[in-house]
Amino acid sequence: MKKLHLLSVLLLTLGGGLITLFTQAIAAEVGSGAEIINNNCARCHNSRPVQEFSTQEWSVILPHMREKAHLTGQETETVMDFFKTLSGGPVKNVADVATMPVMDGGALMKKFGCQGCHSFNGKGGALGPALDNVVAQRGGEFVMKKLTDPQFNNPSSAMPKMPLTSAQINVLVGFLGKK
Amino acid sequence: MHTNIVKNHSIKLISCMSAYLISAASLAQPYDAGEQGRFVIAGYGDVKYEESDLLDSSAFSARFVPIFLFSLNDKMHVEAETEISLNEAGETEVELEYADIHYFLTDTTTVTVGKFLLPFGQFSANFHPSWINRTPWTPGIYGSHGSAQAMTPLLPILSDVGIAVQQTFFFTSQQKIFLDLYVTNGARAEAHNDGDEIIEDHAEDEEVVDEHTEAFPEVEFAATSGDNNKNKAFGGRIAYAFLPAIEIGASYYTAKYDEEERLSITAQGMDINVIGSRYLIRGEYILTETDGLEEADEHAEETINAFKRNGWYLQGVLQAGQIWPQLGGTELVVEYAKTNKFAKAKRWVAGLNYWLDPRSVIKFSYEETDIEEGDGDQRLAVQYSYGF
């Protein structure tokens, strides 16, 4: 009986190890920060505005949410990096913003993870509305206002205020308007 | 015989957890959160106005629920939630909802020790904070302190003291399996004020007696730093998540609740959470089986009867503002809950919510409860809930 018990513990140890190896091996395919937020946070609650907390505060809150939402460590780190891009680090520095390249619309969408929450060209999240015809349907001025102040038309909108320059907003609106 | 089986199960479960932790620890990888903070207070609170026909009263109430978060290092994280509220006598009540430490053993494995919310279903662990819950009430099959609802719940919001292991099986960023296992002090027989255990004779207050006058056993789930026997509760939840649209889970809980470890309570649950861009659907089914001693005369042996109850709820939320932008953060909520056997009841809830921002909501809700053998209730509530 004891031998059987030891054998089962040994098998479980090996099994657990193999499962952990397997899950760690494929864990490299984590999505973007915005996609992880879209996929996981909205399961329970509205996404909180990233500006609500500092990056240091997020670094304490995210481990709490990691356990609640069953996030992996890599996913947690990716979300943290996304939050830093949105609200911390050099993007809040006026000098750095001024020297940031304008980029093209596609590159800006990728940098700020728009498709984590919005679909575009058939790809992306469902947390926000599709962007394919957003300029045609709502007008360029609306999209410009939305990017400048995401809560201007809906106080419960979870869309974060991206640290975009006026030039970058114009590029994005132009890019979305070409569709 | 049954006691031995449960003991063996507990030993096996602890062995399994230990074996798994040994294997996982050998593969541990550090988690680097970068610029690290140390302490944050988050949480939620609410203010509610409620009218109840059954209670024949209307009242304002308020709660403040701070969550204290400490990041000790990149592998250890401490969390504690306290609920501070006023009772009907005007006294301030403080309850420890949970107080635990997470150890992030690997990228996908987390060990939690302390007092924690048991991962049984989704409402207990995830949906109960008032800024997340879409109505001002628990869903009818769940009870909680301060909840004087007309329906007799199947389970309270479960929290207990012990150890838990969480494993996320990560297949793609959109497909995961969540596994949670735990061992805790467990439930115990409800006691009189003088400390005697009560197995029967309590039916008239909260539990309804069936037609054969058998009394439903009363079991106390409130967590304590002690136990009335050596048996430990164990259970867990396994869920498949196809993100971001759907999560389906199955839960299990079992414990011996009397001093002699003859009587057990077992609960099984199924839960579903469907997340659309314009709607939410949340539902749970629970089946409980509770052993009770049948009163015997002087010459007969006591016999153990199993009392089975089941119930479910289904909640639908239509995010109207996503369909008609001029409605902003307006949501429409409908919920139906039903319990069977020993306390048959059903409850409808209809609600209108308005989100002031992503973390604060005003809920206007009406509920109507029909109890088959007892007094029903109609309630109206306006609740302002906020997360912070």
Automatic annotation (TrEMBL), chain A:
It comes from Paraglaciecola polaris LMG 21857. Keywords: Electron transport, Heme, Iron, Metal-binding, Signal, Transport. The keyword Ion transport does not apply. GO terms for molecular function: electron transfer activity; heme binding; metal ion binding. Gene3D superfamilies: Cytochrome c-like domain (1.10.760.10). It holds the Pfam family Cytochrom_C. Residues 100-179 form the Cytochrome c domain. Residues 1-27 form the signal peptide. This is Cytochrome c domain-containing protein.
